[in-house]
Amino acid sequence: MKKQLLPLVVMAVVFQGCASSSQNNKRLERYQPVVAHRTYEVTKKAEPKKVTKAKQQKPVEVKPVAVAATKSDGSVDGQGGKVQRMRKLKHGDMVTVCLYGIPEQVEVNESIDNFGRISMPLIGEVEIVGVGTSAAERSIRDAYINSGFYTDLSVVVMAMADEYFIRGEVKKVGNYPLIGDRTLLQAITAAGGYTDFAKLSKVTVLRLNKEPMVFNCHRIAKRQDADPLIHPGDIINVPRRILWK
């Protein structure tokens, strides 16, 4: 009998234990906070952008601009143009020298002698031949300061314009100032050009202590002959042509 009751007792104990555990679980659930169900998304990390080196621009090549050199000898520059020649003082030139910035203004009119000099007050002779007026001004100014007459002064040198003469069959006969370089054709153009009766093939230029020079202006105009430079004191004569020639 006892052996029959033993399984029943064991089952009752197990059942009671399960019932008590279920009751305990229900009691715990009453006191547990309600937690919402959360979902988590795994996002991919943004990949860092590749830093590319900026393309280096090629430096722009700046070509130097050719500048024509200013020369004082009348030579041809790199552009093929003729540079104006600086006029140099020569023997026999008449010059006017003015001194400023001193107690009394001084004006001297002198002709450059055979030694290339002019005579100035207080300092005597000063050589100015073979240079331009600017260089002559510096020479005179330095001579006064180095001699101890003045501590400072301004000097202005003016050269009287040279002249040439033109006569014959041109529209404006007369004398003309020669400033800088002037060629035969330029001199004739300055005189208004030829008349209708001019003989262009026998234009003569008379120069001091020289034989008369004959030029064919037809050939010069066509650049077949060189256009000669006119010198101070030259006399240009354009002859009259015979009507049937």
Task: Walk me through the topology.
Blueprint: H1 2-31, E1 94-100, E2 106-111, E3 117-120, E4 124-127, H2 133-146, E5 154-159, E6 162-168, E7 174-178, H3 184-190, E8 203-206, E9 213-215, H4 217-221, E10 235-238
The helix/strand class is alpha+beta
According to DSSP, the number of beta strands is 10
Regarding CATH, which class of the domain at 162-238?
Alpha Beta
Cα(first) to Cα(last) distance is 180 Å
Mean pLDDT reading: 77
Computed Rg: 56 Å
How can the largest sheet be summarized? 5 strands, mixed
What would you call the shape? flat
Q: DSSP strand (E) fraction?
A: 15-25%
Q: For this structure, what is the CATH homologous superfamily of the domain at 162-238?
A: Outer membrane lipoprotein wza domain like
What proportion of the residues is helical, as a percent range?
Answer: 10-25%
Walkthrough of the structure:
By secondary structure, this protein is an alpha+beta fold. Among the domains are: 94-159, wza like domain (wza like fold, 2-Layer Sandwich); 162-238, Outer membrane lipoprotein wza fold like. Helix content is 23%, strand content 20%. β8 (203-206) and β9 (213-215) form a beta hairpin.
Name its key features.
single chain; 245 residues; alpha+beta; wza like fold; Outer membrane lipoprotein wza fold like; five-stranded mixed beta sheet; three-stranded antiparallel beta sheet; 4 helices; 23% helix; flat
